[in-house]
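Feature request disguised as a bug: please show the residue count (362) next to 5-methylcytosine-specific restriction protein A in the output. Example input:
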Amino acid sequence: MEFVVTDNEGLPLDATVEVESGTIILRSRGGAAGSPNARNRDYSTALRLILRRLLDQSIEIEGAWVDSSRVQQMPLGERQILFRDDLPETSEQLFTRMSRRMQAVGRLPDAGPGRGNSNKRIRIEIGARSTGDIAHAIGAIPKDRSVPRHAVRLSAEQLRKVTAEHVWQAISNILLEGPSENYGPSTDYDLLTDAGLALPPKAVFGQAASLALGRIVGPNHFSAGLGTPCFDILQKAGYRIVPKRETIDPAEELSAGDKVWTEGNVRLLTHLRRERGHGLSRAKKAEFIRKHGRLFCERCKMDPVVVFGDQYGEACIEVHHHKTAVAEMGTRHETRLDDLQCLCANCHRYVHRIMKSVAADN
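Example output, currently without the count:
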């Protein structure tokens, strides 16, 4: 029976599988990318999901074989790409091992090293289980019942209405209230806040998109991952997206000049770390442009675009905390955009010199 594998949001991938008692057959990818005859374009994503879901449910894999018509006359042992006694610990290691072995099956003798197709038709044996049980385990739905992904997806044009201000507000909401119950924890990547806290990127973007579009945006409405508008917008808003369990010290963002300015003063260093947070800075600038139509210095009123003659002059505008004194900033101090000022670099340095003098006197 034909099924299609679904992603983590329940939307069908372009990946067809045949499911029989104890057997999963993933059809090969074919056709040039972007061409009308391309088929099973989500082959790699589907195989990763199938392997992960089998391992997560402790379903034992008895073996896997290349099953394409061109190699079916070969002995089974020569086209076996996975053995019961050599299963690695993780699904990603399993995917890599199968892909590499798949490339070698049926490869022409004169093919260069590393060459070969890793998107072939394969058969995975998992033992005596019913068709329905297998389909449920790997997240597959009958092909004739699948709804095209584009029927519920938001367009890239709609998603790009999300600004740095929306992203910052979404992060603030999640830190206070937690992510929406519609979104689960992240699986592969984390978004790091300016303070170094790890949040699920898709949950952050979903809430930001809800703010931008004025409607509830659920996980089915967009994709996340490297190269998607979701990750692109989050990164342009000033946030780092890193593989899970990777952390980055916010102090890495400080320049040599910044470190000289603080001279080991913990209060000044805390202030500067907050001030150098890219997410907060870009959110403030986005809000300021929305309100005033342009960036300018709130202290001396200098318009950098007028002074320098082009948009590159906006780099002279920096963001500064001005409402809360450094001495009053506790470790869990919450900053609002109204607590910030947009200052030109000259005024910003002048204000910092005053702060340093006051800190020295205290």
